[in-house]
Amino acid sequence: MSDARVPGEQDDSGLPATVLAGGDTIPAGASSAANRQRRSLESRLPAWLVRHPLIVGWCWIAVWLGFMALSDSLGWADWTWYAFVAISALPTLIASLWVLHATPRALLKPSTDTVLSHFFVRFLTLIFAFLLWGVSVVASASISSTIQAAIGANEREVTALGLNLLLVAIPAVIVLMWMALIVRCAWFLRRLRGWRQTPLKSKVPKKFLRSRPRLRAVVIGLAHPGLLLVGGLGASLLALFLDAAETTLNVYL
Questions:
Q1: Per-residue pLDDT for 36 more than 70?
Q2: pTM, to two decimals
Q3: CA-CA-CA-CA torsion for 142, 143, 147, 153, nearest 10 degrees?
């Protein structure tokens, strides 16, 4: 059904109604009720949150970091620690993904980058890729020799242990890929809205939450590159290094 509408007709109550192309009508009372609901949600946002969304975001992360330290010192269950990590990063993650989803990629074409900077970034990327490849080769050789020394020449046991190590490494690899995604999103947010709490010049589409300016201010304020790096990347680093499961090789004699 097309979205074409014919305004001006009236329903039985005498109020103007919206007529869809297929003949269905939407009473004016229904649309006005939806508008009232949106205005009610707008008015419920606290003024301090609308004025200082970035400061609120930093305070939110600090509070949940305190809960993480408390849970670690009191020996709470492990799932509470992971829950605190996820909750601390949730507001900035939701806001950042919301803003990035609403922004067309065409708005982020680099118009001021020079040819030299373009090639230099690619040069650094190739060097970094070579270093990663070298580290992976050395790590593979070390793991292979360790397995052979621990188990011996039993091919079935070597294969089973190798698969177990692969399964253990999958969560760590997923976390690393997630961290790369967070860095990439923060990079685009820097180009999209800058580092200010309330950006003076922003490439966020004007139609994004146009009818809800207070919510727009909160979402753009929380979608901050620094806040995303600390909340998303910092939480991932904590989960990866501070509370990571230890993997050991059991040597069978």
A1: no
A2: 0.68
A3: -70
